[in-house]
Amino acid sequence: MTTGKRASIVDSRRIGQMPPAHSGSLQAPTGLLTDLRGRPLRDLRISVTDRCNFRCTYCMPKEIFGKDYNFLPQASLLTFEEITRLSALFLAHGVHKIRLTGGEPLVRKNIEKLVAMLAELRTTEHAPPEITLTTNGSLLAKKARGLKEAGLSRVTVSLDSLDEAVFQAMNDVGFPVAGVLAAIDAAQEAGFERIKVNMVVKRGTNDQEILPMARHFRGTGITLRFIEFMDVGSTNHWRMQEVVSSKEVLARLQAEFPLVALQPTAPGETAERWGYADASGQYDPKLGEVGFISSVTKAFCGTCNRIRLSTEGQLFTCLFATQGWDLRGIMRGGATEEQLSQAIADIWHGRNDRYSELRASLPRKDDDGDGPRRIEMSYIGG
Ligand code: SAM
Ligand code: SF4
Ligand code: SF4
Fold first, then answer.
1. What kind and span of H or E run contains 300?
2. CATH number attached to the domain at 4-380
3. Which of 15, 72, 122, 262 could form a disulfide with 273 if both were Cys (CB 3.0 to 4.6 A apart)?
4. Are 46 and 101 in contact, with CB atoms under 8 Å apart?
5. Ligand 2 mean position, distance from CA 16 (Å)
6. What is the pLDDT of residues 75-126, one digit of tens each?
7. Most informative mutation of 107, 159, 170, 198 for ligand 1 (most atoms within 8 A of CB)
């Protein structure tokens, strides 16, 4: 990696393409959009900021995201009104679930206000959308109650280890484990149910924490999810040797706990579910469940119903995309609701992404590669 002024990642975001101009008459949304592979649109992930108060080594390594790094200026960010306007159009096209992410979504000022605005929207079934948020937990203890009152449905908290030294080395800003555990408690006290904890597993870094984490959360009503270390972005020094497959994690868990496979709760769900079993070998809901997100070893592109809106209003149809569609550009250029709606429909209709399925056969576009850089996870949202 080159050193010096950190403009390279910003430059690599590329200016988005303009959505295809529609020459025919504009179609009213039907809530039934499908892409070229017959996949419906259901899940919208919105990155509300590219900033974060952590420097997780697998996501925003300090040597890249340092003091000199050019984060987006305020004027580039979609406003809450713009996010809400676009979200309403996505809901009309079939989205049921909105996930707020980043960066660290809780560093965006007045995020509760955005949650309240989104909670006013309705799906095609006239129900409020499910609104979820993924956070590193550092600001959650303070904000949990306000978020709940604003209408947030669920929360996912990231925590990679219970061991102080390991966790602080991974978040790289010295944030303590106790701070995240207190945030999870505060979320429970505020009334959040079905809380999830995300643990990214890296071999040689925190894989010894798989069992302690499972022991800690088993029977608490919190679902621990193991995430395979992904080759997202271009700066996290991803190496296949550091990926611990879900299969291996499951085997390590099964050495201590009996687990049974559970059915998905919704089509296109990213995590495979396994439940802790009782002495008779049956799933025991009191012991709860774990999840596995296996984007490296077991691609789930076939049912991928997710679309991502970046902090500055670029629309990405895949987490591993190298280029987005400039929705902000057409919105600020004066597009009508019908034109924006049609642009979204045309983009989804033309979608053919299945990066994880093709991963093995593609050249790796890493730090030293000369191909287009992938978008960073902190920019596009996890
Ligand atoms: N800052 C928030 C957080 O950490 O929860 C939200 C944004 S973060 C990008 C969303 C999720 O992506 C987190 O659970 C994080 O651990 C995960 N993540 C980030 N980089 C990853 C990588 N290279 N591989 C797998 N998961 C990753
Ligand atoms: Fe920040 Fe989340 Fe990325 Fe960690 S994973 S650096 S907390 S955005
Ligand atoms: Fe969806 Fe792209 Fe991930 Fe496949 S690689 S599951 S298409 S985001």
1. none
2. 3.20.20.70
3. 262
4. yes
5. 24
6. 999 999 999 999 999 999 999 999 999 999 999 999 999 999 999 999 999 9
7. 198
